[in-house]
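Recall that a protein's primary structure is simply its ordered list of amino acids. Everything else, from secondary elements to tertiary packing, is in principle encoded there. The following example makes that idea concrete.
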Amino acid sequence: MITIIDYKAGNIRSIQNMLRKLGYQSQISDKVETIAAAEKLILPGVGSFDHGVEQLQTSNLFDTIVEKATNGTPLLGICLGAQLMGLNSEEGKQSGLGFFNMRNVKFDTNRLNLQQKVPHMGWSHINLRKNSSIINNQSEDHRYYFVHSYHFSTDDAAIVSATCNYAYEFPCGLEKGNIFALQFHPEKSHRYGMEILKKFAEL
């Protein structure tokens, strides 16, 4: 059973609906005991970094997620949920879950052209940077849906599974063992996002 973590930070039904369409059972929960017993976890979310961290702490879920993932439970972070997996963010003052040696930085608007705005919103291609357990080899047809004003920044190339180019190249996928972070929304990315959720569900 896949457990989708509900910490009151965004629409999570679309993830459950996509998993149902793929034929996988999932549950949405904000209960520590349910998340502590989960076989796989998805941490979604939209909104600000500090609010996300505070919601996890208020719900007593922060330490439970750290313990589960550290002990080998597959964990997938999406959008804000992925950003929370890093150390911190320029958006706020709180510390993240710390799974990746990564911080979140605001897009450098000085490098954007006149057609490029922040947030980065819409469909973009990604570039696979290493063999991934959940992302298939990319073709020209593959594209994914993004909505974000901050992006991952890391000096640890070994954890970067995918990058995206929006005026400049930035990491959009991170992977280390059983822990995965995706800046884009697989649940909104049609069949290419479905491929990712399917591979995660089958881990």
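The domain at 2-201 is CATH 3.40.50.880 (Rossmann fold). The chain is about 25% helix and 30% strand.
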